[in-house]
Amino acid sequence: EIVLTQSPGTLSLSPGERATLSCRASQSVSSSYLAWYQQKPGQAPRLLIYGPSIRATGIPDRFSASGSGTDFTLTISRLEPEDFAVYYCQQYGSSPAFGQGTRLEIK
Amino acid sequence: QLQLQESGPGLVKPSETLSLTCTVSGGSISSSSYYWGWIRQSPGKGLEWIGSMYYSGSTYYNPSLKSRVTISVDRSKNQLSLRLSSVTAADTAVYYCARDPYYGMGEGDYWGQGILVTVSS
Questions:
Q1: I need a labelling partner for B51 at 20 to 30 A (CA). Which of A60, A90, A91, B95 fits?
Q2: What confidence tens digit (pLDDT) does each residue in A88-107 have?
Q3: What digits encode the pLDDT tens for the residues A44-60?
Q4: Selection from B19, B13, B12, B18 nearest residue B79 by Cα
């Protein structure tokens, strides 16, 4: 079973700043099967990026992802007010799992 | 506009079978190249992909739940169904159905609003 650990648990930043969110896997994960999601209160998760750097339809290019092996990163280049939410990484290979989430809050 | 709506009992007793239905409107559940699936979210376990069905009828399940899960489709009613047997309190969660356009593991481009299912006697 692959466990995904996200850090930090909470990230406090201001609009316009750069956000860097981390996802670490307990064993090596194919980057082709790593995805990132955004979730706002009362809503279903929304796919941002998958496989490993393909933005889903309608996702602005301020969102990007990188990484390989066990360490992966989601970067939001300039935070907009609507970006403050919870972010999850997901491994969707043979042992699918989500991370526990990083809450991005307004500072 | 495609819409998905989950329905089913909000309370299930331990050891019984949880049964949910997702009714699809505004489009066909038989549309080619899409997966239709279920994902759940609980305070204790977070997000968890349950399983999905490809438009062709092939099913894919989370290995951790595979022994207890059945996903099926009623094409005449445009409905997706989920059955989860031998439930425990750990199965208490909000259950979502979704249309998955890429890999069938919760990436949904359309979602239901979610239904809270509580497992309790």
A1: A60
A2: 999 998 788 999 999 999 99
A3: 999 999 988 899 999 99
A4: B19
